[in-house]
Fold this sequence. Notes:
Elements: H1 4-9, E1 17-25, E2 28-35, E3 41-44, E4 55-60, E5 64-73, E6 80-87, E7 96-97, H2 98-113, E8 128-130, E9 143-151, E10 177-185, E11 196-202, E12 208-211, E13 216-217, E14 222-224, E15 232-235, E16 245-248, E17 251-254, E18 263-264, E19 271-279
Amino acid sequence: MASLIKVSRDFGSDGDMCATAMETMDGGNCKVSVECNDGIKNEYNDWNVYYVGGRQYFTDDRIGPFSVTFSQKDGGGEGLTNPILQLEYVNSDLEFDVASLAHYYQDDKLDCEKGITPLNCANGPFICEYGDMGNSYIWDSRSKKWICGMPKIGLGGAEDTGLDSNAPTPLGYAPGTCWVHVTQYQKPDPSVDSYSLEVTIYDANENAIGSTGGIVSSAEPVSVYSALPWVLVVSTGGVDDDPVAFAYSDQLWDSNNQEHQSNFGAYDSGNRDGDTAFAC
């Protein structure tokens, strides 16, 4: 698994991610920055909610609307700490407890360095880490810094993290490259029966936007309705080796077509699964 904080800094290897940094000095002077692989580091230093629980809103054209809420004061009760990061398009405005996530990464990293946990143990996925505070620790440094890896609008996070940014969908779906997942069931009796299909359509945000609603016969071409403006039509051949055929608007292709990134496996226990893409 990849670490979001690592790929957010290594823009060359994962252009989907941005480094979102938060900082305070002496419990105030709050700053936030967003840096992506476009060579631009946007800094947001205008704050008007210098109190615990005050939610400060920002908008960045790469990650979309987001906010930071400092949820606690430091040990002396004088300064703001423990930021809560929220992105409008990421996991439905989920609250990321930045300090806890950074502490989790720090603990795992230290255990790994001490040999307490297995090799490659600090590979993640991790979302946040402490920023560079010189030779000081977070709890006694005048400057407190945190960095989180967040995905760009409409893009996924690092592999296997489940962290995705859903772009606004005024059309009812996210346009771009849509995907179809197909499960094809073999004929119970090849001499008289037809294949059966189960089909789901996903938009560019990887959200399901239409399906057959279960297993259906493919004795006739199967029409799959969705939020898309046209109907996807799926057809099967006569024998197991025949490809599955697709038609959407003026696009015609089959499950062997690599231009549509088709990937269909072999039959196993009476069915096979496959995926293919198309422009939507």
